[in-house]
Amino acid sequence: MLVATLSKRLLRVGQAKRCGLSLRSFSDAKDKDLVLTSIDGDTGVATITMNQAPVNSLSLEMCQAITTAIKEVESQPEIQSLVLASSLPGVFCAGLDITELHKPDEKRLTDFWHSFQQIYFDLYGSRLATIAAIAGHAPAAGCMLALSCDYRIMVSGAGSKKPSTIGLNETKLGIVAPSWLGYQYIDTIGQRQAELGLSLGLLHQPEQALAIGLVDELVPREEVLSRAQAEAVKWGKIPAKARLASKMLARKARLDHLAATRKEDNDFFRSFVTNETAQKIIDGYLQSLSKKKS
Ligand SMILES: CC/C=C\C/C=C\C/C=C\C/C=C/C(=O)SCCNC(=O)CCNC(=O)[C@H](O)C(C)(C)COP(=O)(O)OP(=O)(O)OC[C@H]1O[C@@H](n2cnc3c(N)ncnc32)[C@H](O)[C@@H]1OP(=O)(O)O
């Protein structure tokens, strides 16, 4: 896990903790780093950048890397705000890594869903102010990452031939979002829009997402990250205890509910995915994704 300054000079987390945020030292980022964590020494804003080509899909390892990165940042008491971003042009996160669901090993599938639930706990329940910098597609579990943040800034679709989309498209694939994800949607965009979106599996273009309150702002592509980091500075200045207590007013009951039903949720997911019908759907969907390419 690496911590980088905005000047692209890299600092390991341990060093950052020992030396304070203003100190800079060097280390090379490795391609295998699934997420890159940077801290702006001037503003104290942390940025976690998902870095799993081609589409930042959430594999077991990717989920674990995101959780580790959040915990590393949270362990530094000076840091109050966090931006979640992607290093990939055009994709924020393509949702769950569907290959994890295809002919799965049962133990790995259990660990996989557990790690996805864990992101919900860590990001939706984070003490940090969290800003999503959505410079590309964010379907399904990609949308969940954005919904788990406090504020969402998306790339504008204006003038784009293939605008990015965001939403919960599960029903289009013949599957259903877990209830905790469904409630995140309802809590964010309201009952009616969530019913429409969930039932029809809608993926919204940016302007529509803004209109229904799924995202909070649209900006040109080249401004998404800097705008998110500026917003993170603003949120980081709000008294932290009051900000966190307010966030928990809206989120604690949801978090507690999943904590109490976590095992049942995992059991349900596992039995759903390993069912023959679901395997046919998953097989067909994987084929359609690779056919799209050819
Ligand atoms: C089917 C799931 C079944 C059961 C789950 C049960 C319960 C859980 C319920 C809900 C929780 C959340 C669920 C999910 O998140 S399911 C995943 C939903 N995601 C999608 O539908 C997005 C699929 N991807 C795309 O639409 C496009 O890839 C995207 C618009 C993101 C980017 O397009 P682009 O043209 O830039 O790239 P592609 O050429 O399409 O893809 C490149 C490469 O990546 C592979 N790929 C894409 N998405 C995924 C993925 N989610 N998992 C694994 N692999 C993915 C794609 O096949 C290409 O691979 P290759 O051909 O080898 O280059």
UniProtKB/TrEMBL annotation:
InterPro entries: ClpP/crotonase-like_dom_sf (IPR029045), Enoyl-CoA_hyd/isom_CS (IPR018376), Enoyl-CoA_hydra/iso (IPR001753). It catalyses: (2E)-tetradecenoyl-CoA = (3Z)-tetradecenoyl-CoA; (3Z)-octenoyl-CoA = (2E)-octenoyl-CoA; (3Z)-decenoyl-CoA = (2E)-decenoyl-CoA; (3Z)-dodecenoyl-CoA = (2E)-dodecenoyl-CoA. It is found in: Mitochondrion matrix. PROSITE patterns: ENOYL_COA_HYDRATASE. Coiled coil: none annotated. CDD domains: crotonase-like. One of its GO terms (cellular component) is mitochondrial matrix. The keyword Repeat does not apply. GO terms for biological process: fatty acid beta-oxidation. GO terms for molecular function: delta(3)-delta(2)-enoyl-CoA isomerase activity. Pathway: Lipid metabolism; fatty acid beta-oxidation. Keywords: Acetylation, Fatty acid metabolism, Isomerase, Lipid metabolism, Mitochondrion, Transit peptide. Belongs to the enoyl-CoA hydratase/isomerase family. Homotrimer. Key enzyme of fatty acid beta-oxidation. Able to isomerize both 3-cis (3Z) and 3-trans (3E) double bonds into the 2-trans (2E) form in a range of enoyl-CoA species, with a preference for (3Z)-enoyl-CoAs over (3E)-enoyl-CoAs. The catalytic efficiency of this enzyme is not affected by the fatty acyl chain length. This is Enoyl-CoA delta isomerase 1, mitochondrial. It comes from Seminavis robusta.
